[in-house]
Amino acid sequence: AFYFSYYGTVGAFMAYWPPYLISRGLSATEIGMAYALTGLSRAVVPVIWGWWADRSGERMRMIRFASLASLLLFAAIPLVQGSGAVMLLMLAYTLFWNALLPQFEVVALNHLRDGGGDYSRVRLWGSVGFVAAVVSVGPALDGLGIRWEPWLVSVLFAAMASLAWSVPDRLRPVASGAREPAVPLWPLLRSPAVLSLLLVCFFSQLSFAPYYSFFTVYLERQGYTRAFAGQLWALAVISEIVMFFFASRVLSAVPVRRLMIAALAATALRWTMIAAAVDTLPVLLAAQTLHALSFACYHLAAVHYVQRLFPPSLHGRGQALYNSASYGVGGSLGALASGHLWDAASPEWVFAIAALVAMAGTVVAWKTLPRA
Known about the structure:
Blueprint: H1 2-23, H2 28-56, H3 59-75, H4 83-97, H5 100-115, H6 119-144, H7 149-163, H8 186-189, H9 192-221, H10 226-245, H11 247-253, H12 256-277, H13 281-289, H14 291-309, H15 315-344, H16 347-368
Helix pairs in contact: 1-6, 1-7, 1-9, 2-4, 2-15, 3-4, 3-5, 3-7, 5-15, 6-10, 9-14, 9-15, 9-16, 10-13, 10-14, 12-13, 12-14, 12-16, 14-15
């Protein structure tokens, strides 16, 4: 239920927030700057929260506090005037929002280790929440108007915050004296395997930035309706759900290194298709189904690597570093660059460059990722 509401919030935000910002008077460059600022917080904040969570062991307590703080700051966005105030509040709420997912992933994996279960079968409910949100919020905004976007997101936000109180840190308490001895982080960060993983994740999410920031705007520019844009987002995530459902079979049949290489190659193909044929519906639909590889397989491979490369005492910081390098540094630089290119060149060029970035990530994965 927590994954469902968390990713429901992500879906309602990601698919329709750029048009909302445009309605508030922000330019494409300003939207890119706003996403870059929030991505910058994602590069730094998760590591700080991860260090505290690893030291204290009270991850859910931190998640409850951070979810409430981020909800209150986000709900203030429609109450302020001016693009500067909107951008400042976006940055402020992400200082807490970006703490949530890396630490909840550790909680979920601890529960599955204690009680059994398949991570991908639990995680897919986040994808179901994403689909439910984009399919329902799009038509609602067509009827109510785009200015209702932050209020609809806040409803899902509040559901997520309330559900945080129903999840314990562990299914079974840790026995006294059973804590794993502390392992220093710095030697791991200098290891070729960890550096390779972080670099691959950086390239992946650097290439995703135009999609996250401007895909709905791009579709509207081509004459598609906002509701149809939501359906295309939903199609991508439905393909992700299918992949998560069969993930255990995929991971048992395909080496994780090959899975990551395939995910980056599919990402490059996807952005090429969107750049070249966004007005051709069959190609656009096929590009969205590639989300099963470009995101679902990428995420599964990345989580697998983090769990293997970092010891349990560093899992919180390992997940945080993965999020920081990919969605934080990669996402913020990508958002900033795509915002400038959107105004200076064209949407087609933005996605074409994203395809080249993903191809660079494919080469890095092929050359440097360790076999696991």
